[in-house]
Design goal:
Blueprint: E1 3-4, E2 10-11, H1 16-30, H2 37-46, H3 51-62, H4 67-71, H5 74-80, H6 87-100, H7 104-117, H8 122-134, H9 138-148, H10 159-172, H11 176-189, H12 194-206, H13 210-224, H14 229-241, H15 245-261, H16 266-282, H17 288-299, H18 308-320, H19 324-337, H20 343-363, H21 367-375, H22 388-406, H23 408-414
Antiparallel strand pairs: 1-2
Helix pairs in contact: 1-2, 2-3, 3-5, 3-6, 6-7, 7-8, 8-9, 9-10, 10-11, 10-12, 11-12, 12-13, 12-14, 13-14, 14-15, 14-16, 15-16, 16-17, 16-18, 16-22, 17-18, 18-19, 18-20, 19-20, 20-21, 21-22, 22-23
């Protein structure tokens, strides 16, 4: 049966009913609204040989920074191998293979080739955009979407998500005005697009408008409140920028703390760590028990050996908690891993290890060494991945270290040092 999806692309092994369920699941993924499990299960129950439904199931695991979650896609990939797939679907399988082999450049190159032939493959665009974000490829965050955009029109399902991706690429490249216009256009197409609300947070942050950002997020919180802890993170940063430490800490406790300290996505743990570190730098915040919770959660990831971005956030917590044993264990692991001839070995050598050593120095009060190490990070530090707002945690630490050297009595009274012994 020749069945095409809502954007005119042939799909294998589907039925009309299964395709409807798949489109519901895809819409949830594109809009960052979760709740894709149920429609995806219905699609596969209706059509067990539906290739793209299996592919979407695998992609939801492969987008993680947690190697255990990523490798959980391996049996799914094995199950798809026996299915009859068309050329476009086989390209998706090739990209899945590349990521399971930890070959990000090959995955990104294959996605680029796929999108040149199939610019309306919104799932491929979503995956490519996520990889560009995770690898800090700022130029591709913009250029990849710009290349496919002429093939889209507002009538096509998923158009709002393409605009949201374009808006994020614009804001990360410093084009704040066009980013805001594009994000608002995405919201006009889908007011519940959480991704577009997230871009608006970056627009206000990048244009230094915390008051306007806080008002925007508060006004629209019902549109994303139950679907994005990261949007709560941005609201907390706006409150912190306005000097409202109590409100920022309340957001941490009400919307971040439990989801980060319990089982769940590693991204939740990353956001919690960065927020608590910023709160500590601001001074006057008693967060001892919160630090201990996060340190216990991060301890299970010391041996991940997968992502320097997560290593740095783990070290933020170990230093913040005064957990010298885990800080030393992570530092020693990074020393060993920097020699690995892998993607992770390279990022550990260039960025992860020196940044973590800088945090250890900061924690033990050796601010001069912290300044030297942080200021010496190479220009490609953005290759850690994440957004500018997330990577700013290292810049803020550098500024704080400089202030403590310049005015030690005043700064130490404002924000006591976090204690981690030398490793």
């Amino acid at each position: 049966m020749n069945i095409v999806d809502a954007r005119g692309q042939r799909v294998s092994g589907a039925t009309a009913a299964a395709l409807n369920h798949y489109e519901d699941a895809l819409a949830a993924v594109l809009g960052w609204r979760g709740r894709a499990d149920e429609p995806l299960a219905r699609a596969l129950g209706e059509a067990p040989h539906f290739v793209m439904a299996h592919v979407l199931q695998a992609w939801r695991l492969l987008g993680s920074r947690d190697p255990r979650v990523v490798q959980a896609a391996r049996p799914l990939r094995a199950a798809i191998a026996s299915l009859s797939a068309n050329e476009r679907e086989r390209e998706h399988l090739g990209v899945i293979d590349a990521l399971l082999d930890d070959d990000y450049p090959r995955a990104q190159a294959r996605l680029g080739a796929l999108l040149r032939r199939h610019p309306r493959d919104v799932l491929a665009l979503h995956v490519a955009h996520s990889l560009d974000y995770m690898t800090g490829d700022v130029s591709q965050l913009h250029d990849r979407v710009a290349t496919v955009l002429p093939a889209w029109s507002r009538e096509l399902p998923g158009h709002h998500a393409v605009l949201s991706m374009q808006a994020f690429g614009l804001v990360e490249n410093g084009d704040v005005g066009p980013a805001e216009q594009t994000a608002r256009a995405a919201l006009a197409g889908s007011p519940l697009d959480v991704r577009a609300h997230h871009v608006m947070a970056h627009v206000f942050e990048n244009s230094s408008r915390p008051e306007a950002g806080a008002r925007w997020m508060e006004r629209h919180r019902d549109s994303w409140g139950g679907h994005s802890m990261h949007c709560w993170w941005h609201l907390a940063l706006f409150q912190l920028a306005l000097g409202r430490k109590a409100q920022a800490l309340a957001i941490y406790d009400e919307h971040v703390r439990l989801r980060a300290s319990g089982p769940g996505e590693l991204s939740h743990l990353i956001d919690a760590s960065a927020l608590l570190w910023r709160l500590q730098l601001s001074g006057g915040v008693d967060a001892a028990d919160r630090w201990q919770e996060l340190a216990a959660a991060w301890a299970a990831h010391i041996d991940d050996a997968y992502c320097s971005f997560t290593d740095i956030h783990a070290m933020l917590v170990f230093v913040g908690a005064g957990d010298g044993a885990h800080a030393q264990r992570l530092e020693q692991a990074l020393v060993r891993r920097q020699a690995q001839p892998t993607r992770y070995g390279a990022t550990t050598r260039q960025l992860g290890l020196p940044a973590c050593r800088a945090l250890i120095a900061f924690g033990r009060g050796d601010f001069a060494l912290a300044i030297t190490l942080l200021a010496s990070l190479p220009a490609q530090a953005h290759r850690l991945g994440g957004s500018h707002a997330q990577r700013d945690v290292l810049h803020l630490t550098l500024l704080e270290a400089v202030e403590r050297v310049r005015r030690p009595s005043r700064m130490c009274a404002r924000a006591p040092s976090m204690a981690a012994p030398a490793a």
